[in-house]
């Protein structure tokens, strides 16, 4: 139905909104006579807009620093695999879009939750015996970020709280706080390949905790949780009766020496809303197609959460119809070689970066297992010129024209994040410059000269 029409009771017909006339009393329409309102201009931003805050943008925009004019800029800061042109999507994916456009079938409104045929394709693609799916369990969204927003909006009321990883994707806080939701941060442990501090996480749960966000594989860490660790996470959620929002946008983007398990395949009782999309695995973040997979094997969500999600999708009437029309071909025709080549490239870059930076004085990189990132610890006591990770990364830009995001962007100080999607030659050059920068500014901590001499 066209959103700008109404259904008339008498005839059952559809009338354009512009043809509907409403009588307003003369008194209420008299200029200057509306009771309780003084006619004056007073236009202010809403409370929701004032509450909306993106830590990355706030930090990056405040970095008033210019790169070294003698060195070409290398940006290792943007989580967009398309930036340098070295990771194009597969030709089959592009052809699927062309075919959908040429068909002329997908130029109108789709149901707000997505075409039934497209939802059936997603359900079939991700269905397995341990986590069965039907079309009714799939909600299509405008990117994975909207999927996360809808999950929070349907599960959490203003004044309640959610649990979010630290370090973690900054959008969780941005979305939650704009909705009046409190954010509590649970810790990831770098010495355990970024596993969750489960005891600390569980201690944060109270009567106002509405959901737990699990991001696996992780942005910014590049970590992938083991099956046993995921089972321990589910045990906490089951014990506390807290549903999970699983951000799995990097699902299956794991390196060959690691195994990825969708969280829902391990859960028999905890209800899970799993968020994913085309953006990263198919290397098309600008196409803005995401999804929510509803896993509710014990009917804890029931019809209320499903109906709530449907209502929320009606606010913007769903994602791009052309991409929906191409979805069947994208899922069925993308060759395995494409996925393999992408992951092989990312692993090679990850290994190169990790091995190089591991030998740099004052740095402690944490080896990634998937996604597109790795986190590097800064032994800040060995860099006394710099107050913190923000100043460290600012000076790295100014002197070496290498841009990495400081850990503060992810609520984790004295680290920085490296994006590993750049061409190999740029990765080598960036690592070389980071090494040069650290060697120039490294100082032995007081009382540790003997260690430095080794």
Rg measurement, Å: 25 Å
Structural class: alpha/beta
Could you name the ranges where pLDDT drops below 50 across 5 or more consecutive residues?
A: 1-22, 24-28
The count of helical stretches stands at 15
Mean pLDDT: 91
The biggest beta sheet is recorded as: 8 strands, mixed
The fraction of residues assigned to DSSP E strands is: 15-25%
The backbone outline, from C-alpha atoms, is globular
SS elements, strand count: 16
Strand order of the largest sheet: 4-11-10-9-8-5-6-7
- Give the fraction of residues assigned to helices: 25-40%
Span from first to last CA? 74 Å
Topology of this protein?
Blueprint: E1 5-7, E2 14-16, H1 26-29, H2 47-51, H3 55-61, E3 74-75, H4 91-103, H5 116-126, E4 138-141, H6 143-155, E5 161-166, H7 171-178, E6 182-189, E7 195-196, H8 198-204, E8 209-215, H9 227-240, E9 244-247, E10 272-277, E11 290-295, H10 302-313, H11 321-333, H12 336-358, E12 363-365, E13 373-378, H13 389-400, E14 402-403, E15 405-406, E16 415-419, H14 424-441, H15 449-452
Parallel strand pairs: 3-14, 5-6, 5-8, 8-9, 9-10
Antiparallel strand pairs: 1-2, 4-11, 6-7, 10-11, 12-13, 13-16, 15-16
Helix pairs in contact: 4-11, 5-11, 6-7, 6-10, 12-14
């Amino acid at each position: 139905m066209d959103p700008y029409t109404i259904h008339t009771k008498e005839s059952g017909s559809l009338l354009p909104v512009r043809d509907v006339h409403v009588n307003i009393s003369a008194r209420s329409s008299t200029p200057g006579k509306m009771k309780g309102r003084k006619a004056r201009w007073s236009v202010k931003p809403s409370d929701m807009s004032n509450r909306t805050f993106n830590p990355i943008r706030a930090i990056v925009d405040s970095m008033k620093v210019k790169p070294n004019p003698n060195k070409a800029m290398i940006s290792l800061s943007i989580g967009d695999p398309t930036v340098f042109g070295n990771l194009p999507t597969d030709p089959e994916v592009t052809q699927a879009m062309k075919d959908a456009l040429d068909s002329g079938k997908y130029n109108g409104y789709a149901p707000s939750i997505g075409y039934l045929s497209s939802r059936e394709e997603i359900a079939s693609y991700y269905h397995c015996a341990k986590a069965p799916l039907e079309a009714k369990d799939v909600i299509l969204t405008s990117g994975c970020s909207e999927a996360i927003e809808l999950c929070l909006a349907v599960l959490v009321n203003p004044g309640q709280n959610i649990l979010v990883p630290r370090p973690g994707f900054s959008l969780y806080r941005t979305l939650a706080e704009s909705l009046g939701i409190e954010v509590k941060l649970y810790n990831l442990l770098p010495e355990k390949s970024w596993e969750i501090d489960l005891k600390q996480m569980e201690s944060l749960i109270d009567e106002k905790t509405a959901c737990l966000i699990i991001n696996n594989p992780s942005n910014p860490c590049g970590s992938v949780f083991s099956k046993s660790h995921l089972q321990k996470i589910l045990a906490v959620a089951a014990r506390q009766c807290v549903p999970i929002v699983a951000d799995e946008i990097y699902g299956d983007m794991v390196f060959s020496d690691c195994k990825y398990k969708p969280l829902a395949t391990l859960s028999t009782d905890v209800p899970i809303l799993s968020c994913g999309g085309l953006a990263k695995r198919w290397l098309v973040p600008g196409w803005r197609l995401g999804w929510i997979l509803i896993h509710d094997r014990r009917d804890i969500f029931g019809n209320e959460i499903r109906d709530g999600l449907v209502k929320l999708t009606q606010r913007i009437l769903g994602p791009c119809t052309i991409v929906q029309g191409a979805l069947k071909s994208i899922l069925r025709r993308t060759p395995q070689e494409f996925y393999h080549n992408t992951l092989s490239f990312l692993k090679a870059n990850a290994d190169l970066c990790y091995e190089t930076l591991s030998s740099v004085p004052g740095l402690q990189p944490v080896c990634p297992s998937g996604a597109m990132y790795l986190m590097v610890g800064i032994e800040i006591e060995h860099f006394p010129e710099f107050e913190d990770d923000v100043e460290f990364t600012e000076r790295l830009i100014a002197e070496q024209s290498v841009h990495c995001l400081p850990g503060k962007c992810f609520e984790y100080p004295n680290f920085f994040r490296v994006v590993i999607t750049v061409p190999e030659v740029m990765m080598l050059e960036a690592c070389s410059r980071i090494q040069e920068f650290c060697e120039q500014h490294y100082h032995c901590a007081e009382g540790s000269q003997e260690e430095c001499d080794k």
